[in-house]
Design brief:
By secondary structure, the protein is mostly helical. Helices cover 25% and strands 0% of the residues. The chain has 1 helix and no strands. It is elongated. 0% of the residues are buried.
């Protein structure tokens, strides 16, 4: 697992604003964050969001 480093808050805000500005009016962005982890062939672990996901 790769450890993510924090980015400065102002850079995070600028990136988010740039994404919003690039979307057409009324559009939404779906950003993937974590994947389901298989426990075995027919059972998955309970979902847990990646700790480095920033909302």
């Amino acid at each position: 697992m790769t450890r993510m480093t924090s980015i400065p808050l102002n850079e995070f805000n600028e990136r988010r604003q740039r994404l919003l500005n690039s979307l057409p009016a009324g559009a939404i962005a779906l950003v993937p964050a974590a994947t389901m982890q298989p426990r075995n062939s027919d059972v998955e672990y309970p979902f847990r969001q990646d700790s480095d996901f920033i909302t």
